[in-house]
Amino acid sequence: MNGAAFRIIGSLLARRLALGLLTLFVVSLIIFFGVELLPGDLAQNLLGQSATPETVAALRRDLGLDQPAVLRYLWWLGDILQGDLGQSLANRRDIAEVIGDRLGNTLFLAGMAAVMAVPLALCLGMLAALYRNSLFDRIVNIATLTSISFPEFFIAYILILYLAVGQGWFPSLSRAAPDMPFWDHVYVCLLPAVTLTLVTTAHMMRMTRAAIINLLARPYIEMATLKGIRPRRIILWHALPNALAPIINVVVLNLAYLVVGVVLVEVVFVYPGLGQLLVDSVSKRDLPVVQAASLIFALTYILLNLLADVLSIVSNPQLLHPR
Amino acid sequence: MGGFLRILRSMPPTAIFGMVVILAYVFIALFAPLLAPYGEAQVVGAQYEPWGEQFLLGTDNIGRDMLSRLFYGARNTVGIAFVITSLAFVVGGLLGLLASVLGGIFDLLLGRLVDILMAIPQLIFALLLLTILGTSVPVLIVVIALLDSTRVFRLSRAVAMNVVVMEFVEAARLRGEGLWWIMRHELLPNILPPLVAEFGLRFCFAFLFISALSFLGLGLQPPTADWGSMVRDNATLITFGDITPLVPAGAIALLTVAVNLVVDWMLQRASGLRR
Q: What tens digit of pLDDT does each residue of A117-149 get?
């Protein structure tokens, strides 16, 4: 890599990182000040209409609501940076404590789905590109188109109906206990992970296929074909390295999608993860928990997106070797 | 008429299947009150009655007729998804065209704003907004349309950018045509095909999104019949091996597959015409 390339990549990365930080800042603003827009007074809502003005005023002081909003935003941000997420309104427990286990469970499930989905999608995508326009390609194409169109809960319930209720191979509810042995946890998470795999594989596979087919029209591939290299070798050795940037990009984007996609699947399987907590808290209007959970989700999503962009900048051959 | 028939004959069977399904849904949505044997929120029997003569698909968790709710659900879910998509296209399309014609600081600021909005996971954003604003139909429509319009903006701006630099747009500007005239007569006709295809995809998104929210209990509120909440309310039946809750879920899936098949065909046709 020469100096010019280094400078170009450096400035691109710096710009992308700045945009990422700006996004995080705006998200924190939305999450904090959105709650400010709530009709009515938080303390009054908490205590109910029968509370005396004195107790409401006392609670307001307790919660710091008598201070200006900007000041409270800075405190809130400072607390979060120190790992203090505040207290739940519903049960007065420390949110960090409530979220800890659940975040671990969610990441476990998302990670398991990723381990299954990524290799599967890449293999299917490459095979579809290799045997493009064949019967195999068409079947995979239709199968992925349908699985994109299915709502997550439809796939989940079909799996439950046939594999859990029908065959009895898996539990239909994924109750994960905090101190479960690793393989038990895997077993319990298998159906939700398969659901997520089915949902994400389609997109990744289609992008892999498209990225490779896109490259196959290039002159150097034609050259390789004319030299008499076998199609399998052309795809693996000549096309794949150059298709890597878009593929990495779509893989990371799908990981980001997984983190959010777990919400629905967790609810279906009653899996004790962060997504279920978020949905419960939204219906209870437990604002501090909603704020904390959505901040964590948004943070993960934004960071993964950032990672995808950084990887595609760094692995772009045209940027690495400018003319 | 002849042109229409020719298009119809050139359609692959998958696209024809998709068209037929979409038309059937539209028909059911429009005439739900005439087709449904019972009322939308009417309790007509015991809870969870099996499929039979009187209740073709049985009854739900509080004894309402599943089939009737399925018909009304088509009206509510599909109708609201359609309104959302239209709103998203009006807002996103208009801003996208404006950004491409005006360029400069307007384009830059709007682009940044959309970048930031798109960097927030949509479901999380929607859940947050719904907690703050409460769940009602207007709020749902505005929130989802806003989230959806960012993608419409990106697409319409990108496509219009290619047209804005053409000579006939320049000529129109030199003739002294107004902003609105240029957008309406020079740009819009030229970017319509990809936008129509995108409408189908965005509709699927809005439709799945509404269903997902309702499934989580945060979308359309009872007693409004909605496919997502119908799955949620009757989900316990699954553990007894009863497939009734899968019927509304399947209805959602079938419609999205149908729209996707038609969109696939339209995109292929558009790219074929360009070639």
A: 888 988 888 888 888 778 888 888 888 877 777
* Contacts of residue A206, Cβ cutoff 8 Å, sequence gap at least 6: A125, A141, A144
Domain count along chain A: 1
B215 in contact with A, Cβ within 8 Å: yes
Q: Is residue A8 part of a domain?
A: yes
Place of tokens 């059911």: B28
Q: Contact at 8 Å (CB) between A190 and A170?
A: yes
A159 contacts A191 by C-beta, under 8 angstroms: yes
Domain of residue A194 covers 3-39+85-320
Is A263 close to B216, i.e. CB distance below 8 A? yes
In a domain, A123, yes or no: yes
CB contact under 8 A, A35 and B132: yes
Alpha-carbon dihedral sign for residues A75, A81, A86, A88: positive
For residue A319, is pLDDT > 70?
no
pLDDT value at position B159?
Answer: 86
Q: Looking at residue A178, what is its pLDDT?
A: 67
Distances (CA, A) of B190 to B96, B157, B176, B198, B200: 14, 12, 20, 15, 18
CA B44, B50, B56: angle at the middle one, nearest 5? 70
Query: Per the structure block, which two tokens stand in for A39?
Result: 């009709």
Are the C-beta atoms of residues B109 and B99 closer than 8 Å to each other?
no
Q: Which residues of A89-116 are buried (b: 16+ CB within 10 A; e: fewer)?
A: beeeeebbebbeebbebbbbbbebbbeb
Contact A148 B218 (CB under 8 A): no
| pTM for this prediction | 0.82
Smallest Cβ distance to B241: which of A154, A166, A283? A166
**The two three-digit tokens of residue A115, written as one number:** 């381990």
pLDDT of B85: 93
Determine the residue type at A158.
I
pLDDT above 60 for A1: no
Q: Give me the total of CB pairs closer than 8 Å, taking one residue from chain A and one from chain B.
A: 131
Give a yes or no: residue A49 inside a domain: no
In a domain, A44, yes or no: no
| Alpha helix stretches (DSSP H) within chain A | 3-36, 42-47, 53-63, 69-81, 95-130, 135-149, 152-159, 182-216, 219-226, 231-233, 240-269, 274-284, 287-314, 317-320
- Phi, psi (rounded to 5 degrees) for B120: -95, 130
Up-side HSE of residue A154: CA atoms within 13 Å toward CB? 22
Taking the Cβ of residue B124 and every Cβ of chain A, the question of whether any pair is shorter than 8 Å is answered with yes
Partnered with residue B43 across adjacent β-strands are B64
The answer to whether B127 faces chain A, any CB pair under 8 Å, is yes
CATH label of the domain that carries residue A141: 1.10.3720.10
Chain B residue whose CA is closest to A34:
B132
In one letter, which amino acid is A217? A
